[in-house]
Amino acid sequence: MNAMYLERQAQALTKIHSAGLEAQLILGYENIRYLTGYSGNAAYLILKPSGNVLITDYRYFERAKTETHGAEIYERDREAQTLGAAIAMFLVDETKVGFESAFISVAIWHDVAKDLSHLTLTAKNGLIESLRAVKSSWELASMRKAAAIADEALAETLKHMDTGCTEHEIATELDYRMKRLGSDGVSFDTIMLFGARSALPHGKPGNTTLNEGDFVLIDFGAVINGYRSDMTRSYVFGEPSEKQKHIFSAVEEAQQGCFDILRSGLDCKTLNATSENVLKKFGYESYMGKGLGHGVGLFLHEFPFINRTTDHQLEVGNVITIEPGVYLPDFGGVRLEDDVVITEHGFEFITHAPKSIRW
What are the Creatinase N-terminal domain coordinates in residue numbering (predicted)? Predict the structure, then answer.
């Protein structure tokens, strides 16, 4: 395990050097975890050739000592020492330093920068994320386990759905079952929507009750070792109408069209257009979601993004979601989402729950 983190740190240092920097402040918690294994908060990682340093405080110091690989652990007294002063202690021989501006507020950075005024500071984002985009066998094993937990939890939860149950009740049941099966937590706040509310792509479960003929949209995920699954299934409770069947068929065909061409070297914009063209053919151009999917891993939405603007050719080891959707206000919506990993021979499913308009 230690060798894995040391290799990641070496790869990151190569990228830092190529960017013309001597050190990089890693401020995103997912990036810190990827590089060192530390899974807590209140941490700041200095990555530099002469030795890495993880700065935290008394709340996480012992945890950091247990989890962290390849970095010295420094316990900062928050009452006696500013964050900037603590960072400056370990940047003595470096002058060109990058920092992840995406993960720190302007107010906090303003105070930190005062203590680092002797350095040339450059906002540099995306260095670690580019490494995270290609998953190792260990990462894939974690994601497959998370997805398997989600698959099983969904199958058990569907047995409890009946007329009169509320969105909140079933969402809570699903979350509970994932945790009972071994999930570290939930990948994100579970989306559970009934009837016309299924047209809200990211709606919050409420007290809406389930009725015969309702659409049901469920978007959820489990977590193992910090790695997330992300899956959406849509159903009709009872006998679907012809209109409901038409929407479901459109989304199902759009997703399958993407699977038919999915491979390494495929451009994200081409993949997105494939889904859009199918949904346009069915007449849902004005009601389809903006963007087909995204990378997933330690962070729910990470590079690469599958949309009209991302110019990225898929690589072996990329884990992405394929999630076309159609959302008709005041009627309902359908989304089908699966996690897949790009392989040398095409792709493999990570999520496996059955897809059917009726469960």
Answer: 8-134
Give me the percent of the chain exceeding a pLDDT of 70. Answer: 100
60-91 pLDDT tens trace: 999 999 999 999 999 999 999 999 999 999 99
**Helix 2-18 with 29-36: angle, nearest 10 deg:** 120
Q: How far apart are CA 153 and CA 175, in angstroms?
A: 8
139 token code pair: 């990462």
299 and 189 belong to one structural domain: yes
Residues 253-265: pLDDT tens digits? Answer: 999 999 999 999 9
- Residue 44 domain flag: yes
**Contact predicate 304/315, CB 8 Å:** no
- What backbone phi and psi angles, to 5 degrees, belong to 239? -85, 120
Length reported for the chain: 359
Are 182 and 242 part of one and the same domain? yes
CA distance 144 to 293: 18
Last residue of a domain, one of 132, 152, 182: 132
3-state secondary structure of 69: coil
Kindly give the interhelix angle for 167-180 and 137-158, rounded to the nearest 10 degrees. Answer: 130
Q: Which two tokens stand for residue 252?
A: 């199902």
Contacts of 234 (CB under 8 A, 6+ apart): 198, 215, 216, 217, 218, 248, 251, 333, 334, 335, 336, 357
> Last residue of some domain: 132, 155, 170?
132
